[in-house]
Design goal:
- The protein has 344 residues and is of the alpha/beta class.
- Helices cover 37% and strands 14% of the residues.
- It has helices at residues 15-31, 68-77, 91-104, 123-133, 161-172, 244-261, 267-277, 297-300, 303-333; strands at residues 2-10, 37-45, 63-66, 109-112, 139-144, 186-189, 224-232, 340-342.
- The strands form two sheets. A six-stranded mixed β-sheet has the order 6-4-1-2-3-8, sandwiched between helices. Strands 5-7 form a two-stranded parallel ribbon.
- Strand 1, helix 1 and strand 2 form a beta-alpha-beta unit.
- The radius of gyration is 19 Å and the shape is globular.
- The two termini are 15 Å apart.
- The relative contact order is 0.16.
Protein backbone atom coordinates (compact mmCIF):
# COMPACT_ATOMS: atom_id res chain seq x y z
CA UNK A 1 0.00 0.00 0.00
CA UNK A 2 1.35 3.44 -0.94
CA UNK A 3 1.42 6.09 1.76
CA UNK A 4 0.45 9.73 1.25
CA UNK A 5 1.31 12.50 3.69
CA UNK A 6 -1.49 15.07 3.84
CA UNK A 7 0.24 18.27 4.90
CA UNK A 8 -1.22 21.45 6.34
CA UNK A 9 0.05 24.43 8.34
CA UNK A 10 -1.45 24.69 11.84
CA UNK A 11 -0.51 28.20 12.91
CA UNK A 12 -2.03 30.85 15.14
CA UNK A 13 -2.99 33.18 12.28
CA UNK A 14 -5.49 30.66 10.86
CA UNK A 15 -6.02 28.09 13.59
CA UNK A 16 -9.78 27.65 13.25
CA UNK A 17 -9.52 27.26 9.49
CA UNK A 18 -6.72 24.71 9.77
CA UNK A 19 -8.57 22.59 12.34
CA UNK A 20 -11.77 22.53 10.34
CA UNK A 21 -9.84 21.54 7.19
CA UNK A 22 -8.03 18.72 9.03
CA UNK A 23 -11.34 17.50 10.47
CA UNK A 24 -13.13 17.61 7.11
CA UNK A 25 -10.40 15.80 5.19
CA UNK A 26 -9.90 13.29 7.99
CA UNK A 27 -13.60 12.50 8.19
CA UNK A 28 -13.86 12.06 4.43
CA UNK A 29 -10.84 9.75 4.27
CA UNK A 30 -11.99 7.68 7.23
CA UNK A 31 -15.46 7.24 5.74
CA UNK A 32 -14.02 6.45 2.30
CA UNK A 33 -10.95 4.23 2.75
CA UNK A 34 -8.93 3.31 -0.34
CA UNK A 35 -7.62 -0.17 -1.11
CA UNK A 36 -4.25 1.05 -2.41
CA UNK A 37 -3.48 4.27 -0.53
CA UNK A 38 -3.22 5.24 3.12
CA UNK A 39 -3.26 8.92 4.05
CA UNK A 40 -1.36 10.11 7.13
CA UNK A 41 -1.31 13.64 8.51
CA UNK A 42 1.77 15.85 8.60
CA UNK A 43 1.37 19.18 10.38
CA UNK A 44 3.73 22.10 10.57
CA UNK A 45 3.05 23.91 13.83
CA UNK A 46 4.59 25.34 16.99
CA UNK A 47 5.18 23.49 20.27
CA UNK A 48 2.50 25.46 22.10
CA UNK A 49 -0.17 24.52 19.53
CA UNK A 50 0.56 20.78 19.43
CA UNK A 51 -1.96 19.95 22.15
CA UNK A 52 -4.76 21.00 19.81
CA UNK A 53 -3.80 18.24 17.39
CA UNK A 54 -4.64 15.41 19.81
CA UNK A 55 -8.27 15.47 18.66
CA UNK A 56 -7.16 14.20 15.24
CA UNK A 57 -5.19 11.21 16.52
CA UNK A 58 -8.17 8.93 16.11
CA UNK A 59 -9.03 10.11 12.61
CA UNK A 60 -5.72 9.51 10.83
CA UNK A 61 -3.68 6.28 11.15
CA UNK A 62 -0.62 8.40 12.04
CA UNK A 63 -0.05 12.06 12.82
CA UNK A 64 3.37 13.69 12.46
CA UNK A 65 4.36 17.13 13.72
CA UNK A 66 7.16 19.35 12.46
CA UNK A 67 7.78 22.16 14.95
CA UNK A 68 10.42 24.81 15.66
CA UNK A 69 12.58 22.29 17.50
CA UNK A 70 12.72 20.08 14.40
CA UNK A 71 13.69 23.11 12.31
CA UNK A 72 16.56 23.96 14.68
CA UNK A 73 17.80 20.35 14.72
CA UNK A 74 17.76 20.23 10.94
CA UNK A 75 19.56 23.56 10.54
CA UNK A 76 22.23 22.49 13.00
CA UNK A 77 22.86 19.34 10.94
CA UNK A 78 22.93 21.30 7.67
CA UNK A 79 25.68 23.77 8.55
CA UNK A 80 27.79 24.51 5.48
CA UNK A 81 25.07 23.35 3.05
CA UNK A 82 22.51 25.45 1.17
CA UNK A 83 19.50 25.99 3.40
CA UNK A 84 16.09 24.42 2.62
CA UNK A 85 14.46 26.75 5.16
CA UNK A 86 15.41 29.22 7.85
CA UNK A 87 14.29 29.74 11.42
CA UNK A 88 11.88 32.43 10.24
CA UNK A 89 8.76 31.86 8.15
CA UNK A 90 8.63 31.82 4.36
CA UNK A 91 6.25 30.17 1.93
CA UNK A 92 8.98 28.09 0.29
CA UNK A 93 10.48 27.08 3.62
CA UNK A 94 7.10 25.75 4.74
CA UNK A 95 6.84 23.51 1.69
CA UNK A 96 10.43 22.28 2.04
CA UNK A 97 9.86 21.27 5.67
CA UNK A 98 6.90 19.06 4.81
CA UNK A 99 8.65 17.65 1.74
CA UNK A 100 11.49 16.53 3.99
CA UNK A 101 8.97 15.31 6.57
CA UNK A 102 7.32 13.11 3.94
CA UNK A 103 10.66 11.41 3.28
CA UNK A 104 11.57 11.13 6.98
CA UNK A 105 8.36 9.24 7.79
CA UNK A 106 8.53 7.03 4.72
CA UNK A 107 5.60 8.37 2.71
CA UNK A 108 5.62 7.97 -1.06
CA UNK A 109 3.76 11.19 -1.87
CA UNK A 110 3.12 14.62 -0.40
CA UNK A 111 -0.45 15.96 -0.71
CA UNK A 112 -0.73 19.58 0.37
CA UNK A 113 -3.90 21.54 1.19
CA UNK A 114 -4.47 25.00 2.64
CA UNK A 115 -6.25 25.87 5.87
CA UNK A 116 -9.73 26.88 4.76
CA UNK A 117 -10.20 24.17 2.13
CA UNK A 118 -12.69 21.28 1.97
CA UNK A 119 -12.34 17.81 0.42
CA UNK A 120 -14.05 17.53 -2.98
CA UNK A 121 -16.71 14.84 -3.31
CA UNK A 122 -14.59 12.96 -5.84
CA UNK A 123 -11.34 13.30 -3.89
CA UNK A 124 -10.09 9.74 -4.38
CA UNK A 125 -10.60 9.87 -8.13
CA UNK A 126 -8.62 13.11 -8.27
CA UNK A 127 -5.79 11.66 -6.17
CA UNK A 128 -5.65 8.53 -8.33
CA UNK A 129 -5.36 10.58 -11.51
CA UNK A 130 -2.75 12.89 -10.04
CA UNK A 131 -0.63 10.00 -8.74
CA UNK A 132 -0.77 8.39 -12.17
CA UNK A 133 0.39 11.67 -13.74
CA UNK A 134 3.33 11.83 -11.32
CA UNK A 135 4.81 8.87 -13.21
CA UNK A 136 5.71 11.35 -15.95
CA UNK A 137 5.50 14.75 -14.22
CA UNK A 138 7.26 16.30 -11.22
CA UNK A 139 4.45 18.44 -9.78
CA UNK A 140 0.65 18.42 -10.10
CA UNK A 141 -2.22 20.25 -8.45
CA UNK A 142 -5.88 21.09 -8.63
CA UNK A 143 -7.33 24.61 -8.39
CA UNK A 144 -9.66 26.47 -6.04
CA UNK A 145 -13.34 26.20 -6.93
CA UNK A 146 -14.37 29.84 -6.56
CA UNK A 147 -11.20 31.89 -7.04
CA UNK A 148 -7.73 31.79 -8.52
CA UNK A 149 -4.63 31.15 -6.42
CA UNK A 150 -4.04 34.86 -6.98
CA UNK A 151 -6.56 36.95 -5.02
CA UNK A 152 -8.42 37.94 -8.13
CA UNK A 153 -11.59 39.18 -6.40
CA UNK A 154 -9.92 41.66 -4.06
CA UNK A 155 -8.23 45.06 -4.20
CA UNK A 156 -8.85 45.93 -7.88
CA UNK A 157 -11.71 47.45 -9.85
CA UNK A 158 -14.05 44.71 -11.09
CA UNK A 159 -14.61 46.62 -14.33
CA UNK A 160 -10.89 46.21 -15.15
CA UNK A 161 -10.55 42.56 -14.09
CA UNK A 162 -9.43 41.07 -17.39
CA UNK A 163 -6.82 43.76 -18.02
CA UNK A 164 -5.69 43.53 -14.42
CA UNK A 165 -5.14 39.77 -14.50
CA UNK A 166 -3.36 39.99 -17.86
CA UNK A 167 -1.09 42.65 -16.41
CA UNK A 168 -0.20 40.58 -13.32
CA UNK A 169 0.34 37.45 -15.43
CA UNK A 170 2.69 39.26 -17.81
CA UNK A 171 4.71 40.76 -14.95
CA UNK A 172 5.00 37.65 -12.77
CA UNK A 173 5.35 35.17 -15.63
CA UNK A 174 2.57 33.04 -14.11
CA UNK A 175 -0.43 31.75 -16.08
CA UNK A 176 -2.99 32.80 -13.48
CA UNK A 177 -5.87 30.75 -14.91
CA UNK A 178 -3.78 27.57 -15.07
CA UNK A 179 -1.47 27.89 -12.09
CA UNK A 180 0.02 25.21 -9.89
CA UNK A 181 -1.83 25.92 -6.64
CA UNK A 182 -0.07 25.01 -3.42
CA UNK A 183 -3.18 24.67 -1.30
CA UNK A 184 -5.39 22.78 -3.78
CA UNK A 185 -4.37 19.10 -3.88
CA UNK A 186 -0.76 19.99 -4.65
CA UNK A 187 1.23 16.74 -5.04
CA UNK A 188 4.80 15.56 -5.49
CA UNK A 189 6.47 12.20 -5.16
CA UNK A 190 8.64 12.35 -2.03
CA UNK A 191 11.01 14.16 -1.57
CA UNK A 192 10.11 16.24 -4.62
CA UNK A 193 11.77 19.45 -5.77
CA UNK A 194 12.44 22.26 -3.27
CA UNK A 195 10.70 25.60 -3.31
CA UNK A 196 12.53 28.90 -2.72
CA UNK A 197 13.10 29.73 0.97
CA UNK A 198 13.84 33.28 2.12
CA UNK A 199 15.21 34.75 5.32
CA UNK A 200 13.18 37.55 6.96
CA UNK A 201 14.06 40.93 5.50
CA UNK A 202 13.58 42.46 8.95
CA UNK A 203 13.51 40.75 12.34
CA UNK A 204 9.72 40.62 12.46
CA UNK A 205 9.02 40.75 8.71
CA UNK A 206 9.21 37.52 6.72
CA UNK A 207 10.13 37.76 3.05
CA UNK A 208 6.85 36.59 1.56
CA UNK A 209 7.09 36.18 -2.21
CA UNK A 210 3.84 35.19 -3.88
CA UNK A 211 4.15 31.96 -5.87
CA UNK A 212 7.56 31.03 -4.45
CA UNK A 213 6.10 27.79 -3.08
CA UNK A 214 3.91 26.76 -6.02
CA UNK A 215 3.96 28.86 -9.22
CA UNK A 216 7.74 28.48 -9.55
CA UNK A 217 7.21 24.84 -10.47
CA UNK A 218 5.83 25.95 -13.82
CA UNK A 219 9.18 27.39 -14.86
CA UNK A 220 11.14 26.00 -17.80
CA UNK A 221 12.61 22.56 -17.16
CA UNK A 222 10.08 21.41 -14.53
CA UNK A 223 7.33 19.20 -15.89
CA UNK A 224 4.10 20.12 -14.11
CA UNK A 225 0.39 19.76 -14.72
CA UNK A 226 -2.63 21.66 -13.42
CA UNK A 227 -5.91 19.77 -13.25
CA UNK A 228 -8.35 22.65 -13.69
CA UNK A 229 -11.22 20.16 -13.39
CA UNK A 230 -10.04 19.20 -9.86
CA UNK A 231 -11.77 21.99 -7.98
CA UNK A 232 -11.22 22.44 -4.24
CA UNK A 233 -13.82 24.48 -2.38
CA UNK A 234 -12.95 26.78 0.51
CA UNK A 235 -14.95 27.34 3.68
CA UNK A 236 -12.67 30.35 4.28
CA UNK A 237 -12.47 32.16 0.91
CA UNK A 238 -9.15 33.95 1.37
CA UNK A 239 -7.49 32.83 4.59
CA UNK A 240 -5.46 35.49 6.34
CA UNK A 241 -6.69 39.02 5.66
CA UNK A 242 -3.96 41.19 4.15
CA UNK A 243 -3.87 44.95 3.56
CA UNK A 244 -2.81 45.89 0.02
CA UNK A 245 0.75 46.83 1.01
CA UNK A 246 1.33 43.37 2.45
CA UNK A 247 -0.32 41.47 -0.38
CA UNK A 248 1.28 43.42 -3.20
CA UNK A 249 4.68 43.31 -1.56
CA UNK A 250 4.48 39.56 -2.13
CA UNK A 251 3.27 40.01 -5.70
CA UNK A 252 5.98 42.60 -6.40
CA UNK A 253 8.46 40.08 -5.00
CA UNK A 254 7.20 37.58 -7.57
CA UNK A 255 7.73 40.15 -10.32
CA UNK A 256 11.27 40.78 -9.09
CA UNK A 257 11.92 37.04 -8.86
CA UNK A 258 10.69 36.68 -12.45
CA UNK A 259 13.37 39.16 -13.52
CA UNK A 260 16.06 37.33 -11.52
CA UNK A 261 15.17 34.00 -13.11
CA UNK A 262 15.68 35.59 -16.50
CA UNK A 263 18.90 37.41 -15.51
CA UNK A 264 17.24 40.74 -16.21
CA UNK A 265 17.62 44.05 -14.37
CA UNK A 266 14.74 44.17 -11.93
CA UNK A 267 14.84 47.07 -9.47
CA UNK A 268 13.84 49.79 -11.90
CA UNK A 269 11.21 47.55 -13.46
CA UNK A 270 9.64 46.81 -10.08
CA UNK A 271 8.94 50.50 -9.56
CA UNK A 272 7.28 50.62 -12.97
CA UNK A 273 5.15 47.63 -11.96
CA UNK A 274 3.88 49.41 -8.83
CA UNK A 275 3.14 52.60 -10.78
CA UNK A 276 1.08 50.65 -13.31
CA UNK A 277 -0.56 48.49 -10.62
CA UNK A 278 -2.02 51.57 -8.94
CA UNK A 279 -4.20 52.17 -12.01
CA UNK A 280 -6.19 49.05 -11.18
CA UNK A 281 -6.67 49.47 -7.41
CA UNK A 282 -10.01 50.66 -6.03
CA UNK A 283 -9.72 52.77 -2.83
CA UNK A 284 -13.42 52.31 -2.07
CA UNK A 285 -13.15 48.54 -1.49
CA UNK A 286 -13.31 47.39 2.12
CA UNK A 287 -9.93 45.63 1.97
CA UNK A 288 -8.26 48.87 0.81
CA UNK A 289 -9.77 51.23 3.37
CA UNK A 290 -7.32 52.64 5.86
CA UNK A 291 -4.41 51.98 3.50
CA UNK A 292 -2.34 54.59 1.72
CA UNK A 293 -3.25 54.52 -1.96
CA UNK A 294 -1.73 54.89 -4.45
CA UNK A 295 0.87 52.41 -3.22
CA UNK A 296 4.34 53.83 -2.69
CA UNK A 297 7.57 52.13 -3.75
CA UNK A 298 9.24 52.54 -0.35
CA UNK A 299 6.25 50.97 1.40
CA UNK A 300 5.84 48.00 -0.92
CA UNK A 301 9.40 47.10 -1.93
CA UNK A 302 12.01 48.42 0.49
CA UNK A 303 15.57 47.77 -0.67
CA UNK A 304 16.14 45.27 2.18
CA UNK A 305 13.17 43.23 0.98
CA UNK A 306 14.67 42.95 -2.50
CA UNK A 307 18.10 42.21 -1.01
CA UNK A 308 16.56 39.25 0.82
CA UNK A 309 15.13 37.93 -2.45
CA UNK A 310 18.57 38.21 -4.06
CA UNK A 311 20.13 36.14 -1.26
CA UNK A 312 17.29 33.62 -1.20
CA UNK A 313 17.43 32.99 -4.92
CA UNK A 314 21.21 32.52 -4.86
CA UNK A 315 20.81 29.99 -2.03
CA UNK A 316 18.02 28.24 -3.98
CA UNK A 317 20.16 27.74 -7.07
CA UNK A 318 22.70 25.94 -4.90
CA UNK A 319 19.98 24.00 -3.06
CA UNK A 320 18.62 22.55 -6.29
CA UNK A 321 21.94 20.84 -6.95
CA UNK A 322 22.20 19.15 -3.54
CA UNK A 323 18.54 18.64 -2.57
CA UNK A 324 18.78 14.87 -2.13
CA UNK A 325 21.93 15.28 -0.03
CA UNK A 326 20.16 17.85 2.16
CA UNK A 327 17.23 15.47 2.68
CA UNK A 328 19.62 12.64 3.58
CA UNK A 329 21.46 14.79 6.15
CA UNK A 330 18.20 15.77 7.86
CA UNK A 331 17.03 12.15 7.82
CA UNK A 332 20.19 11.12 9.62
CA UNK A 333 19.73 13.90 12.20
CA UNK A 334 16.03 13.49 13.00
CA UNK A 335 14.41 10.15 13.79
CA UNK A 336 10.90 9.78 12.39
CA UNK A 337 9.47 8.49 15.66
CA UNK A 338 10.38 11.77 17.40
CA UNK A 339 7.93 13.53 15.05
CA UNK A 340 5.01 11.16 15.62
CA UNK A 341 2.12 12.52 17.66
CA UNK A 342 0.65 9.06 17.86
CA UNK A 343 1.49 5.67 16.43
CA UNK A 344 -1.00 3.47 14.67
Amino acid sequence: MSRILLSISHVASNLAGARRTIQEFGSYLRANPHSRYEVELGVETSAELQAGLAQFAGIFPKVYVWDDAATLRALDALRGLPQPFFSGFSYGGTLNRVLILSRLVGCDYLLRVDPGTLPPAGLWGMIERQVDTLKTHCVVSGVYADRLAFRDNQYARSSMRDRYLSFVASQTGVALHQQITGGALFMMASPGIPAIPFQPWLAAEPTLVWGSDDAIFQEDGIKSRVFTEHKVARHDPFGKAKPPVEYFRGVAGAVYLNHLRRSAAGRTSIHTFIRDLNEFLDPSLAENRGSRLPLQNDDVVPARFLDSIDRGYANYLQLLGVWNDVVDVVQQAIAADTLALQNG
